[in-house]
Amino acid sequence: MQDLVAPTVATLALVALGGYLLGSIPFGVVITRAAGAGDVRNIGSGNIGATNVLRTGRKDLALATLLLDAGKGVAALLIARHLFDSELAGAVAGGAAFLGHLFPIWLRFKGGKGVATFYGLLLAAAWPLGLMAGAVWLICAFLFRYSSLAALISSATAPFLALLPLAAVGLPVSAPILALAVFAAVLIWIRHHENIARLLKGQEPRIGAKKA
């Protein structure tokens, strides 16, 4: 029995390592430096994600960061799922890429909050789920005007959306993908603890609000 289990564990360990290293690529830092916009970690909130990159005044850099941060989650999940023909391998690679974005080895484990990578993972795992979660974000952002609150609500509802009995569009999702959605949602809430505190105090900046 041990001989049968060991290769599977070893394979998943390699998949996780590859996903983590891919997810660790800090595109926000790389892009802003390459474009001569400075180090995004010294701007605004210091976060490496697209929202903070936008504070450089370069919408093109923010869009590129958004797409690449989402794309690394997509790539990790799809490559692993294709190579090993396994939803579990895809989920492990995707989860590891998500961890890599949050805690990148290249930046001493100080990374982003994972929202873009989260939506990339959902789209790659089950595109209807990704679209629905994205729609929840858009609705919440429109109603409440808080990007962080929209991300929190959207991530929290994603696992429930994954359980919808919509076989025609691939729902409910497999157990590994459901576990991935829950895992990522929990980490998003943990990484947004400062935003949650500001929301409770009424101090969180709204979308489009200008700083005094």
Automatic annotation (TrEMBL):
NCBIfam families: glycerol-3-phosphate 1-O-acyltransferase PlsY. The lineage of its organism: Bacteria, Pseudomonadati, Pseudomonadota, Alphaproteobacteria, Caulobacterales. PANTHER family: GLYCEROL-3-PHOSPHATE ACYLTRANSFERASE-RELATED, INNER MEMBRANE PROTEIN YGIH. Keywords: Acyltransferase, Cell membrane, Lipid biosynthesis, Lipid metabolism, Membrane, Phospholipid biosynthesis, Phospholipid metabolism, Transferase, Transmembrane, Transmembrane helix. GO terms for molecular function: glycerol-3-phosphate O-acyltransferase activity. It is an enzyme of class 2 (transferase). It comes from the Bacteria. Coiled coil: none annotated. The gene is plsY. InterPro entries: G3P_acylTferase_PlsY. Its EC number is 2.3.1.275. SMART domains: G3P_acyltransf (SM01207). Pathway: Lipid metabolism; phospholipid metabolism. Probably interacts with PlsX. It catalyses: an acyl phosphate + sn-glycerol 3-phosphate = a 1-acyl-sn-glycero-3-phosphate + phosphate. This is Glycerol-3-phosphate acyltransferase. Catalyzes the transfer of an acyl group from acyl-phosphate (acyl-PO(4)) to glycerol-3-phosphate (G3P) to form lysophosphatidic acid (LPA). This enzyme utilizes acyl-phosphate as fatty acyl donor, but not acyl-CoA or acyl-ACP.
